[in-house]
Amino acid sequence: MDFLYWLWVLLLLIAVCVPLGLLYRYGQAPFDHWSKLGVNGPSPTIFLGNQLELFKPGGSMAAHTKWQKLYGQIYGIYNFRRPQLVVTDPEVLRRILVKDFNNFTDRYFSSNGSLINKEAKTGLFFSGGQDWKRIRSIVSPTFSGSKLRGILNHITICADRLVTNLEVYALRGGAADIGKIFSAFSLEVIASTGFGVQVDSQKNLDEPLVAHGQSLFAFRRSLIAIFLSVGIFPDIFVPLLRSLNIGFFKKKDMAYFSDVVGKVVEERRKNPDQTHSDLLSLLINAEVEEDVNEHRESDTNETLGKGKMKQLSREEVIGQALIFFFAGFETTYKTLQFMCYEIARNRHVQRRLLDEIDETFGFSVKDEEQVNFETVQSMPYMDAVIHETLRMYPPLTQISRIPIQDTAIKGGIHLAANTGILIPIINIQRDPSNHPNPNKFDPTRFIDPDTRKFRKVGSESGVDVFNFLPFGFGPRQCVGERLAMLEMKVALIHIFRKLTLDPTTSERVGISDIASILRPVKPIMLSPRVRPRFMVKE
Ligand code: HEM
């Protein structure tokens, strides 16, 4: 009896302890990766790696600030089970982003089975390897100077509406949620410059385009469940969620954007003779080439390599269009939001900007036509204000790469193929050894004190390129940088020709960068005022 009893207890213990032991081993298994390579870094938590720290209120920026102090410019962390090397050392950055680019063409996303919804997967941001090279070579010319000149008109119309919208608050004497207002502006710009879709979302902030745009990057609780399940049990949940097309973006937002873009693509294909001055027309023309060449050798890499043919499938055209929406909207509106916040708080900055705008455009509102491509490029202080904003508030706070092949980097660290490399841009840009007094908004960092000219990043007297990476760097850097700069300059000129902005509180707004996307922790409210010379005299 006794024997049977103890046997039963023993079997029960085994039945409980063995699975628990296996689970424990599974949870701990990857966490000797960095110590074996002699790379320092914070201790991981079973199953979660170092994710707990990254999801605390200050987001990854706060975590990396702490870790950088402890472990220096290169250290190892765990993104759940996956090792990631964090790099801020300029010499190693040069190697990864430029010198050895051919071994670091892809982002971490492209390879880690991460959950990018199928509609966006072919988009430039998420594509990898030869596909990326082909798509990039088609998409890049879309953002050339001459193309941008052609779409300036679209941006100007949106900027006029932006000012009219802000004037309503000025006349009412109320405060505006500046993030909401810029998100509507930025969506309008990308919809019209990208796809010739005209919406007046600025009048109606609840317009579906704005609502879906804002919802795309809004933090939602279900994301935590997705990250946890995929991070801890990737082999089970990645295929499962993929088969259900559950990903980083909400299904209903993806469906909405795919539908909008898909309809424009269909319409353009039905009416090929109509010409359009927007980004989509270039992408569609590339697609037409594919139809023409459909009986030819279909190995795109080969043919592209010989310079014969470029092609985008219909799915890829929609993928690029979606990426333009995602990459172009959130980033630009967040930068405008933080920029106006700092301009409002720093009266001397606002004064100098107003002076530059007045000197460039004169005092009459009738001079509207002077806001042309050339004048927009010739305002050093405005350039400095934008750069200083991007330094303090890069909307994407981190970029990533993976090596295609095993490689060794500084200090003999051996990186296996596909190991994640994380570059925390915001930490580099707020590091006091790179930018003294880094939490002070000071555009003169980018101005030559003698000539009062803009100090170009990377120039002899300018900031080092590896200390300033808001658009990334190298062949994979942001393809839309010039469009974003143009859009922000036009918006600033239009706003400050007519209005000034006041803060509603002297408190600093907190920021957080959970999932690498910078957000203010609460809405930024600013009070627009009409500049005295535009006041209607009684
Ligand atoms: C202030 C505005 C913007 C900022 C700060 C920004 C920042 C970035 C960053 C950091 C990257 C990653 C670069 C890297 O990994 O080295 C990126 C990539 C990209 N951005 Fe932007 N971006 C902005 C505006 C735009 C706009 C307006 C568009 C297009 C309409 C755009 C389209 C893209 C695309 C397609 C990529 C992927 C490029 C590739 O993988 O080849 N971005 N952007």
From TrEMBL:
It comes from the Eukaryota. Keywords: Endoplasmic reticulum, Heme, Iron, Membrane, Metal-binding, Microsome, Monooxygenase, Oxidoreductase, Transmembrane, Transmembrane helix. It is a peripheral membrane protein. The chain crosses the membrane at residues 6-26, 223-241. One of its GO terms (cellular component) is endoplasmic reticulum membrane. It is found in: Endoplasmic reticulum membrane; Microsome membrane. Its cofactor is heme. GO terms for molecular function: heme binding; iron ion binding; oxidoreductase activity, acting on paired donors, with incorporation or reduction of molecular oxygen; steroid hydroxylase activity. Heme binds at C478. Cytochromes P450 are a group of heme-thiolate monooxygenases. They oxidize a variety of structurally unrelated compounds, including steroids, fatty acids, and xenobiotics. Belongs to the cytochrome P450 family. This is Cytochrome P450.
